[in-house]
Write a structure and sequence with these properties.
Length: 93
């Protein structure tokens, strides 16, 4: 059972997310990151001193014993992070 990302509205070829098998929950968070300009301009232009907005999107997928975080910056995929959970829970009835 794989998790697929389908591009909307075309529904063209899906992107398979191989590290998110047996997924049971999803969360999406997007925000705009205002980064400082990379280089200092040599002329005095206020428009050149404004921060550069970057759209950051994160998709958290909860799986059986791990959480997988996919992230994108301005639509470009970033590295995948995996957090494994180990539960030693004893139930007393």
């Amino acid at each position: 059972m794989n998790v697929n990302l389908w591009p909307l509205p075309s529904l063209s070829t899906p992107t398979i997310l191989p590290k998110a098998k047996a997924a049971f929950s999803f969360a999406v968070y997007s925000y705009v990151l205002n980064a400082e300009p990379a280089a200092t301009p040599t002329f005095s232009d206020e428009a050149a001193l404004k921060p550069i907005p970057t759209l950051v999107t994160m998709l958290l997928i909860g799986c059986r014993r791990k959480a997988v975080i996919y992230s994108w910056k301005d639509g470009e995929p970033q590295g995948v992070k995996v957090c494994h959970f180990h539960f030693n829970v004893w139930l007393y009835l």
